[in-house]
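User: Run a structure prediction on this.
Assistant: Running it now.
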Amino acid sequence: DVQLVESGGGLVQAGGSLRLACAASGFTFNDYAIGWFRQAPGKAREAVSCISNSDGTTYYPDSAKGRFTISSDEVENTVYLQITSLTPEDTATYYCAAGVAYAPTKRLCETFNVGMDHWGKGTLVTVSS
């Protein structure tokens, strides 16, 4: 069975950093793109970053450029999201998701409701001011 398990969330003070991890299993890692998405209370889910394990390309929407860094460990089948300079506006549940890398990473990430087939249960990040 496909499994995506997020970890690394928690309570952090504004200005701090976190590294989230998404451990993947049950599928051929290098055939998939994996992305990080977040949903704040009362808001729509949004893309944070995606990476293709097929060709290594990454994508960040404009809102995520600069403070978010996605990386992939093909040995551990894990994708990481490093977040720096956290603000209370980063408070959200962060989800990782996987989709077959059949299209450009940007498209898979932006159209995640179509491009991502499997989702984890999420990890909560709370940033205190």
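Helices lie at 105-110, 112-115.
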